[in-house]
Amino acid sequence: MLALRLFLVLIGILLVISLLGYGLNRDPRWLRFAGLSLKSGLALVGLLMLIYLVERLILVL
User: Fold this and answer.
1) How far apart are the first and last CA of the chain?
2) How far is Cα of residue 26 from the mean position of the Cα atoms in its chain?
């Protein structure tokens, strides 16, 4: 669980770095990298929400 949160923080840092890189030299490869990091970050958030939901359902049963 902690590893997923650390990956989420790492993806946030990568997103900021890639947007700063695009802001400096206007290379579209930075935007593609930012899009990939955003998609993977959203996938990790979805995975965390699914894990929390399963935990809650198991605790209720």
Assistant:
1) 22
2) 23
Tens-binned pLDDT, residue by residue, of the chain (61 aa): 788 789 889 999 999 999 999 999 999 999 999 999 999 999 999 998 999 999 999 988 7
18: which residues sit within 8 A by CB, 6+ positions away? Answer: 30, 31, 33, 34, 37
Sign of CA dihedral 13, 19, 21, 24: negative
CA gap 4, 45 in Å, rounded: 9
